[in-house]
What does this fold into?
Amino acid sequence: MSTADIKEVVREKYGQAALRVNSGGSSCCGATPSRCSDPITSNLYDPSQTQQIPEEALLASLGCGNPTALAKLDPGEVVLDLGSGGGIDVLLSARRVGPTGKAYGLDMTDEMLALANQNKRKAGIENVEFLKGEIEQIPLPDGSVDVIISNCVINLSADKDRVFREAFRVLKPGGRFAVSDVVTRGEMPDEIRKSVLLWVGCVAGALEEDEYRAKLVSAGFDKIEIEPTRIYRIEDAREFLSGQNIDVDAIAPQVDGKFMSAFVRAVKPQRKEACCRPTCCQ
It folds into this structure.
């Protein structure tokens, strides 16, 4: 698919997810929209977190991780969530940075933005702002954000290099990149990779972990860490893959354990101080 086609597929899927939540249903990014007890989206948030937010924010979560549990957030900081959906991670982050901080959510889907603002009003949290836009072109100034989080949305982008460059741009020097995302490990046949990723992440766009690291380096980041949080086994995807007329037992050795949710950390380096001494350039 072209970049435009991928964006339209993502926009449609996430718009439909928001509408299902508003009509009293729930949503997930796994095999079918109605089956949300899958190993990707289930049990990501503990009760101490879910009690802080409206139920609709949890039901609309399409993530594969919990970046708010793993990211370091301090009072007074500015946080940006890329692909904020129903707002769950934005609302949780806003509570952690407190009234002197701020949490932005960025999403391109009108239905999700409407749901997120509805959840903001229900939660009564003031230091939150939801922005309409694309993660490849963030509508914030250079050096305006302390921490970037995201919950399994970057894997959906068709231009990840641009996403990483934009993230680097809006972060302050010393700012942190702290996202959950779907990544793969090692090589496998393209058709198998695409089929499994359709199950894992709605759109088959996840990067191999070494490629993910290389793209972050290319964007300017350092101190990069990729920490697996959930490794998917072949049995997790058996029902979905069987429905795609794939011989699950035959592909198991090539797939088992090679797809995972991971927490990715990186840092935008501090600016180097200018040197005026004659020996500086020696």
Summary: Residues 31 and 199 are 5 Å apart (CA to CA). Residues 29-37 have pLDDT under 50 and may be disordered.
